[in-house]
Amino acid sequence: MTISRRVFVKSGGLALFSLGLDPLFLARAAFAVRPSAGPPDRRILVCLFQRGAVDGLNMIVPHGDPLYYRERPRIAVPQHDVVDLDGHFGLHPRLAALQPLWNNGSLAAIHAIGSPDSTRSHFDAQDYMESGTPGAKATPDGWLNRYCQHDREHQNTPFRAVAFGPQLPRILAGSAPSLAIDDLQAFGLRAPQPAARDRLTRAFQELYAGSATGLLSTSSQEAFEAVQMLKQVNPGQYQPANGADYPRGRFGTAMMQIAQLIKAEVGLQVAFADVTGWDTHVNQGSSAGQLAARLAEFGQALAAFAQDLGDKLRDVVVLTMSEFGRTVRENGNSGTDHGHATAMLVLGGPVNGGKMLGKWPGLDPANRFEGRDVAVTTDFRDLFAEILARHLGATDLATIFPGFSPDPARFPGAIRI
Amino acid sequence: MKIWAVASLCGALGASPLMGASAQAPLLTPRDSALHALNRLAYGPRPGEVDRVAAAGVMQWIDRQLSPDKIADAALAKRERQFKILEYDTGDLAAMYVDAQRERRERQREATAAPDSMTRKPDPGGPAEQRGRRFAGELQELAVVRATLSERQLYEVMVDFWINHFNVFLAKGADRFLTPSYIEATIRPRALGRFADLLVATAQSPAMLFYLDNWESVAPGSTPPQAMRLRARPLFGRAPQFGRPPLFDPGRDPMRADSQRQRALERMPKGINENYARELLELHTLGAEGGYTQQDVIDVARIFTGWSIRRPQQGGDFEFHEWAHDYGEKVLMGVTFPAGHGRDEGVRLLKLLANHPATMHHVSRQLCQRFVNDDPPDGCVDDAVAAWKRTEGDIREVLRAIFTSPEFWAAPNVRAKIKTPLEFVVSAARALSADPDTTPRLAQVVARLGEPLYLHVAPDGYPEREEAWVNSGALLDRMNAAVALAAGRLPGVAVSIDSIVPASADPARLIAAVDAQLLGGTMSENTKAVIRRQISDISDPLQACALAIGLAIGGPEFQRQ
Prior knowledge:
heterodimer; A: alpha/beta; Alkaline Phosphatase, subunit A; 2 domains; 9-stranded mixed sheet; 3-stranded antiparallel sheet; 13 helices; B: two-stranded antiparallel ribbon; two-stranded antiparallel ribbon; about 5% strand; disordered N terminus
């Protein structure tokens, strides 16, 4: 199959180009001709988006700062509940499942990270964090997709970049092929019985193999290869390893399916999933309550993922992100409003873990952003760029983050060198 | 240009376009050109339509499509009356939005009292919240139903074009209730009018003002009247009411009242917001290469300070706030806007932008991308720009220029475009004479294929290029949708397979009919052979028919237009 595509591009593709046909189609076709032989590139990045702006201050609690307790009389996490990390910061008690990962050095947290853009709109801030170009709305593609465009040496597989959800998110939009999978078990042609399903799959495969041209041809080949590979993986029969217990619900299922794809060695390099419910304007709670429930699900899914992967975690980095943080001071409804900087987690074998990263600006009103929010001391692109460079081996960071000059001197040091 | 002269003459005479095209491409037969026009100016042919258009003359059909007011559309009008969403005005919808927000706040408040559980069941919300979701689904389905059933096909295609050109995001706060009137009152009445009118209408539409944040763009240092009153209030007390409803209800707790007052003051806009100004220049008018600078963006934003909206409780209409307007002098691309002007200078600017050469080129190019090729040839863009200049941006004439340009009919551009998910679903529904009801089934299929309507987050609208739509997952989804639709498995979407071919037909007749009705006779030998093999051992004729149609719609030929 690889050979036929190579022949296609050599003979047909260049001819098409001279006819003035879409060069982007050729760019996509070029992805398809990389040899699939050779050792698989095993390093994997999993990006998780906490949509709705997580309250970083109650996720990674600055329990050593009296101002934290003064500003949040009703919602602060009491010191005796916090899972201490370094004497000043600690995990929310419902994230206790992550403590062993901190202790064994595979979990780091970074505070005061965010966007140089001051917007407090979820919509704009998520857009900027996914396009990787704060302040510039018209960027057509996402930074994860630009990474895939830039690094074409990766082995050829339809599962290279996968988003778990009904639609491809902005972060993976762009000319490099990527898959949106709502549910691994339902991926492919749907039919009541396996035999009917196989027959329908074969019929469409023949249709496309014989009549499709251009992008329809390369994409359909990728599709049927993916269906074939998944059939061997048999996602319906999956049993998590090492007693890993994923929480029920969308997010736990997504994490389990990511682990499944990693273990199936189908060439997954970049995975993405959403986890929602962080916009806690009203009654967010402290050690228990609304936010605590979301954090419990979040922490247990991450812990189960690490446990399930076991040794394989050595090649995996999980990066969590959220569009902005929340106000230092609690509001009149025992909640928090849209703020500026937040906290992110980095988890995995290659992580320089067991420590807090970044520069903590403190909660003193004089050091706050616009007098009210945690100031940004780390541009999120510095962390993202470090992970792309030191974990996945990206070299041309300036094309992945246009308008930004990534500088190793500013990397927060999330990945062991 | 000679070719242009020939082509426009053809158009004027209502003759065949084939003469013009013959200069550079093999001749299209009358059926081929009818199919091409139906694929581009319409959402694909219904059964028998290729023959009808070919017989009447494709240029006459195009001419009629350019005057939608003269086309009767009774069947659609009857179906539209079943959509409840059309019965409410923005004031009604705003009131419902306020109710839904109150319900949501109350639900969040109650959530704290409840113990936290591991698995959060998705809460459907109260009646107002559920009604909001139902209306959103109706709004999306209405677009699909209109595209499927309307006789005014080109008009519906252009509505979709402008909805994307002037994109708003249905799920962004107040746009939940502002979008219906944006579609009905701002875009639809002007879809084939003058570009300048459309531009002014979108600029002062509440949906756009909210979506691109201009409603809170104020001259630095300006103070809203509400803020004056807030500051004037004594601590721990209520100030007398001045007719307007309060920004918040202070309640009984004085501490809480002060904290809320503080928040309300903090939330007051404090300066200009450049968001709308930037997208106006980059996307709506001049284009990214339009030759403007960051300083131009700032001055455009200053010109639009004070273009705002009323609060939802007051209906959310457009409102110009004099107190927020920057009355200083501005200069845009060398044109001076003297000091002392209010709302009028914004209108002056929009009219200037609407017929700027960069705008003519940018928008004409996008139209050619939609109608001719993802990478539009220069010739048709030039023809469109010439018509724009001649008619000061009469959209109808710009379109006529494109449809009479030789490039539109040139062989390399025929079947050169991949259908968007909306075009794929609607063309399949039309091919099957589907009659969708008001339930959002078809809109949900469009969403599953990657194009949830009115829900494109970024201001550039859904893309027109094939690489945005063709990927392995999306193709499998199209195959599944095709099989489900042909098998009649989509409730609420009655399809009529009989209108294509009687179920009693033998395999050869069945395949010939599917080829003729669904693919305009363009089915490849390979596709015919595959379908013949697949239906050979199916004894139930109805099942064989559904499978043949499902394979044809999910197959490669039907993805093109």
